[in-house]
Specification:
Its main location: membrane. By secondary structure, the protein is mainly beta. The chain contains 4 helices and 87 strands.
Length: 1209
């Protein structure tokens, strides 16, 4: 890549040099020289809407030139006071005031000093008049239908261009067609008029766009009288007019547009055609317009001269006209005289040549006067050149060459300056230059010298001039250093010397590091529709970073700065991202870097991958009964080799239009012999596969039909469907359409009892099922099924063993015993049923059991049968998930595929006591500095006679250390609460409570709480202050037997006691019989409702009084004489549990002994039975986490961890 960058750098630098120094060296303004006109006006038009009109003439020279003007060849003086002139300039202005028409004419500017006179080309100043149609009376025109008509326009003269329109008085255009035509002069022609042409408002409009003027001719009236006898006639030309004869001549200037027009009257309307006599019309430049009436040739050349013929024709005849086209040209320079600087005694020559048609004449002038008036000794004047010999300073002058013909005049000034001067270096001394390593450096030394001078360059610290192939000095003094290195940096001197003297300047050169680029990834291969990301990593000299600019291009065409408008291609500096890549995005991507001194580029070839195009031109050959050769042509692989072809076929009579895969072929092959089945009308298609995916399927091939044949295979999966005793319903998988091989498919079924010396029974069917009656239940049979069609039978079938229909077992097992494993698990043993009494295939045994009563309360349970099945031949099974301390009945039965047999006699057994479940809840209902009162609910399942509770507690606080575990055995099971004393103040405790029976204690339920500090008065823990302004809802008690205390208070009161405390007990129906309580009495419920209503009434009165500004007497006393103890409770307790600052207590993540294991097995039916688990209710031991769980019966408190208190009567 480096040589490429270096070559590009050389090219860029050379182009820069040529652009900078291609101009001819001008004489410095400090050197005396003849005048040179540097600016002049062309044609100037005095538009009426301009403020002023400026005619320009600017010149330079030394001494400063003076200016004079001529108008129409005569001296022109600025005598009109309206003319505005400028100092040291020949430009003057004519204000648009009053009449200025007398300023119209052709002006010429002369700039002169003591050395010579320069002359401008003629400047035409046009003062256009306002065009107007003459006032005239236009007589109405009355003609017969079918007559030809010409409506003249005769537009006024004015500043071109001129546009003519024919419209009616409502400014609607007169429609033109083959019959109606407007000529270039503006006249409106009718080949033959019709009644619809009658109107009284034919108006001709002439538009002069440069003057912003439109003028209208007086309306013309045309009346067309209808005629019953319209005579048809042959064509007659109206354009060109008859008086011009059959031929006319037209002169056109080279490069302009040639317009030839023909229009003929006649009936029917004549058609116009064009041709060039002796040649062809110029292709690509000629067009026929206006329904063929106008021939237009653009950019006329000399080859277009000659004779053109228009032919107007209808079926009655023709009319022709020939145009002789002459192509001419104004003068143009072929060798324009060039200014030159000479030294005394030298020789020179001025050349002046021009071409045109007719050939231009050339005249020479010196300082604006004919050359004959200024003869110099030794000068030789020819029409096309002037030669000078032994030039002297008095030869200094301005020479004018003028070429002219009938179409115009051109003028050229050439300065001849005879000067002798020491070299003048125009480049500043001490200029700084910079380039990059490997590029060319250009150090400038522009100078002017006469006579000619010699230029040399050298390094400041060296004596010898620079020499070698790497150095080149141009005529203008510029030094080029090729393939620069870091050693080329330094200061250089430029010396210019001629016969008069020598001069020098210095230049400084800095060498920078070359810019480098790397585009990544290199040559990526990306699937279609994916995203392409290219990154351009650049590295350039630190001095050039400010000028570094990156750009992206694809295949030589640059991207827009930010990508495409649709956002699919995004360019972000060094990154180019293309979303949803298409095949058109494939190509060579180039990242280009440009700095102030160099440029670099790097490319990457992006290959877009896509699925192949579908294969083409499928052809079938070598057609056989069971095979055919398929050949195809591969489609485009889209840059990813085809790995394989998939050949699919269609021909399934049952599913027409469905294509199935037949075979696969390696990607390098495009032909395959296909195996075929009989009696199929095949059609094939091919799919190409590459690494991107599958192509679209090819177009289907021709059809290929195979002849029928006998079946090649027999049915499979022969089986017996569930049937009645002493019958077999034989079923099998029918042959598919592609396997039938011919018409008339049937199945021959044969069978006989297995091992019996009898003949095979046979039956032929058309469907795929057969019902056979048998003399025995569940007897084995040998069965065969063979496929046959109209052309023969399939291969000999294999025999399969099937059994006749089953019946229900007719005897029940005998239960030997039930062994109690634990309170929830028993083992049942039974005798098996004899094989001949099963009447089928034994699938297993089924145990049915149901609970009859609870041994705890003696209550009888309704019969709810649970089922557990054991597969296979066995005589025992385990029954899990039983209720402890209960009585059960149990039966066993056998079952087969037909169903279940009779049940055994019920077996009665009892389960022993077990450990209880955990209590339903545990709450701390009251705390003090050293005491706490706990309340709990009974377990849902007691699993035996409750003997008491085990209460444990320990200090946990907010540390990883836990205190010693304390045990309390509560032997009064009917007491659901306990008061703890001798606790530490301001200490956090964790409490564990287990329910116990004679078999042990169950799982614990836990709760955490903190004691109060010194000086605080114990209160019940609060869930939340009750806002009485909110809508009240009845309190829901979720847990049977749960106890709750409801405390009502306002949020703003400071009392340490609530207004009213009500204790209510609710119990579920489950324990209503065990614990008789007054809460079930009607009088008690009525009393509680009355107390609740009185409480709400009292709260309402309090709030109303408070809102009116009153205070309770108790509140007033507390405000006047605050109790220290009460204040302490307010500060500490309510501060902890206030509505605005409720913070939950941190619960311990530890359980009592990490994970407490139940004392008995948590049995599951999954471990003992096979299915039908949904038939039982599994009530085994508690499984799952219990620490920190929220009790169902709790009244939640918006984030507070305060326990809700039990309701007790």
């Amino acid at each position: 890549m480096e040589p490429l960058l270096l070559g590009r750098g050389l090219i860029v630098s050379l182009i820069f040099f040529l652009l900078k120094f291609s101009k001819a060296i001008e004489i410095p303004s400090s050197v005396q020289q003849v005048p040179t006109i540097i600016k002049q006006s062309k044609v100037q038009v005095a538009f009426p809407f301009d403020e002023y009109f400026q005619i320009e003439c600017e010149a330079k020279g030394n001494p400063e030139p003076t200016f004079s003007w001529t108008k129409d060849g005569n001296p022109f003086y600025f005598t009109d006071h309206r003319i505005i002139t400028s100092n040291n300039s020949g430009t003057f202005r004519i204000p648009n005031e009053g009449h200025i028409s007398h300023f119209q004419g052709k002006y010429r500017c002369f700039a002169s000093n003591k050395l010579g006179i320069a002359m401008s080309e003629e400047i035409e100043f046009i003062v256009p008049s306002v065009p107007k149609f003459p006032k005239e009376k236009i007589d109405p025109l009355e003609v017969e239908e079918g007559d030809p008509v010409v409506l003249p326009c005769n537009p006024p003269k004015g500043l071109p261009p001129l546009h003519i329109y024919w419209m009616n008085i409502e400014l609607e255009h007169i429609e033109q067609d083959e019959r109606v035509y407007m000529s270039q002069k503006g006249d409106l022609y009718f080949a033959n008029v019709e009644e619809k042409d009658s109107r009284n408002d034919y108006c001709c409009f002439a538009a002069f766009p440069r003057l912003r003027t439109i003028v209208q001719k007086m309306p013309m009236k045309l009346t067309v009288n209808s005629s019953n006898s319209i005579k048809q006639r042959k064509p007659k030309l109206l354009l060109p007019p008859t008086e011009s004869g059959s031929e006319s001549s037209i002169t056109i200037l080279k490069g302009e547009i040639l317009l030839l027009e023909c229009f003929a009257e006649g009936l029917p309307t004549p058609q116009v055609d064009w041709n060039k006599i002796g040649g062809d019309l110029p292709k690509g430049r000629e067009t026929k317009e206006n329904y063929g009436k106008t021939l237009k040739i653009e950019n006329v050349s000399y080859q277009d001269k000659g004779n053109y013929r228009c032919t107007a024709s209808n079926f009655l005849g023709t009319a022709t006209h020939d145009f002789h086209v002459i192509v001419e040209e104004p003068p143009r320079w072929t060798k324009k005289p060039q200014s030159a600087v000479y030294s005394t005694g030298s020789n020179g020559i001025l050349l002046c040549e021009a071409e045109g048609e007719p050939q231009p004449t050339i005249k020479w002038r010196v300082n604006g006067s004919p050359v004959d008036n200024h003869p110099f000794a030794g000068d030789v004047v020819f029409p096309r050149e002037i030669s000078f010999t032994n030039l002297q300073p008095n030869h200094t002058a301005v020479y004018q060459c003028e070429a002219s013909n009938v179409h115009g005049t051109i003028l050229a000034n050439a300065n001849i300056d005879v000067v002798d001067v020491r070299p003048l270096i125009q480049t500043k001394d001490g200029e700084n230059y910079a380039t990059v390593v490997g590029y060319s450096a250009f150090l400038h030394c522009e100078f002017f010298a006469s006579p000619e001078a010699v230029v040399s360059w050298q390094k400041v610290e060296e004596v010898k001039p620079l020499e070698g192939r790497r150095y080149h000095i141009y005529e203008n003094g510029t030094l080029q250093i090729n393939r620069t290195t870091e050693e080329d940096a330094g200061s250089y001197s430029c010396w210019v010397e001629n016969a008069i003297g020598k001069t020098a300047v210095t230049a400084n050169l800095d060498i920078r590091n070359a810019t480098k680029l790397r585009v990544s990834p290199k040559n990526p291969r990306i699937p279609k529709s994916h995203m392409l990301e290219l990154h351009c990593e650049s590295k350039c000299d630190s001095h050039l970073k400010h000028s570094l600019k990156l750009s992206w291009s694809k295949d030589g065409e640059a991207f827009e700065i930010n990508g495409t408008e649709d956002g699919r291609i995004i360019i972000d500096g060094a990154n180019l991202t293309i979303s949803n890549v298409t095949l058109e995005d494939q190509g060579i991507y180039c990242c280009s870097a440009h700095t102030a001194l160099d440029s670099a580029a790097d490319i990457t070839q992006v290959t877009v991958l896509d699925v192949p195009d579908p294969p083409e031109n499928l052809h079938l050959s070598e057609r056989q009964n069971r095979s055919v050769r398929l050949t195809w042509e591969a489609g485009a692989d889209h840059n990813s080799d085809i790995s394989e072809y998939i050949v699919e076929f269609e021909g399934n009579k049952e599913e027409p239009g469905r294509w199935d895969e037949l075979t696969r072929v390696q990607g390098k092959k495009t032909t395959v012999i296909l195996p075929l089945a009989p009696f199929v009308r095949y059609q094939f298609r091919v799919i190409a596969v590459n690494e991107v995916g599958r192509s679209q399927p090819s177009q289907p091939s021709d059809h290929h039909e195979t002849p029928p044949a006998a079946p090649d295979r027999n049915p499979q999966n022969i089986r017996v469907q569930a049937s009645q005793p002493k019958e077999m319903i034989i079923k099998w998988e029918p042959l598919k359409s592609m396997e039938q091989n011919g018409p008339g498919l049937e199945y021959r079924v044969t069978w006989k009892p297995q091992g019996a010396p009898v003949e095979w029974e046979e039956e032929t069917v058309t469907n795929h099922t057969l019902r056979v009656m048998t003399p025995a239940v569940y007897a084995p049979y040998d069965v065969k099924v063979q496929a046959i069609n109209q052309l023969g039978s399939g291969p000999d079938p294999q025999s399969v063993t099937l059994y006749s229909g089953e019946d229900y077992p007719d005897t029940a097992p005998v239960i030997h015993g039930v062994d109690v494993i634990n309170s929830t698990l028993v083992k049942v043993t039974w005798s098996t049923v004899p094989k001949d009494r099963v009447h089928g295939r034994l699938k297993g045994y089924q145990i049915n059991w149901w609970k009859t009563k609870s041994l705890l309360d003696g209550r009888t349970h309704p019969k709810e049968v649970n089922i557990l099945r054991f597969s296979g031949q066995r005589n025992s099974g385990m029954v899990p998930s039983l209720d402890a301390f209960s009585e059960f009945h149990l039966t066993v039965l056998a079952y087969n595929s037909k169903g279940a047999g009779p049940e055994s006699e019920p077996y009665i057994f009892q389960t022993p006591e077990g450990v209880p479940e955990q209590p339903t809840f545990l709450k701390v209902i009251k705390v003090d500095k050293d005491t706490a009162t706990l309340s709990w609910g009974l377990p849902k399942k007691l699993n035996g006679n409750l003997t008491g509770y085990l209460l444990q507690y320990q200090i946990i606080n907010d540390t990883y250390e836990i205190g010693e575990l304390n045990d309390i055995n509560i032997t009064t099971p009917s007491k659901p609460s306990w008061h703890l004393s001798n606790l530490n103040a301001t200490t956090k405790y964790k409490f564990y409570l287990r329910a116990c029976t004679s078999q042990g204690c169950g799982k614990p339920i836990t709760e955490e709480s903190s004691t109060l500090g010194e000086g605080s008065k114990g209160i019940g823990k609060i869930s939340e202050g009750v806002n009485l302004t909110q809508k009240t809802h009845p309190i829901e008690v979720f847990e049977p037997g749960a106890e709750h205390i409801v405390r009502l208070m306002t949020k703003n009161w400071g009392d340490n006691d609530s207004i009213f405390q009500d204790v209510i007990e609710t119990r579920g129906r489950e324990y209503a019989g065990l614990y008789d309580d007054i809460s079930t009495q009607g009088w008690f419920i009525g009393l509680m409702c009355a107390i609740a209503l009185l409480t709400l009434l009292l709260l309402t009165v309090c709030f109303v009084k408070r809102n009116r500004g009153g205070k309770y007497s108790v509140k007033e006393k507390e405000d006047l004489h605050p109790d220290p103890e009460i204040q302490s409770v307010k500060d500490e307790t309510f501060g902890e549990y206030s509505d605005s600052d409720e913070k939950p207590l941190k619960g311990s993540l530890r359980s009592l002994n990490r994970d407490m294991q139940p004392t008995e097995s948590a049995d599951s039916l999954v471990e003992y039975g096979e299915g039908d688990h949904g038939l039982f209710s599994e009530d085994g031991s508690f499984i799952g986490a219990y620490a920190g769980s929220k009790e169902k019966g709790s009244v939640e408190s918006n984030g507070s961890s305060t326990a809700t208190f039990p309701l007790r009567a």
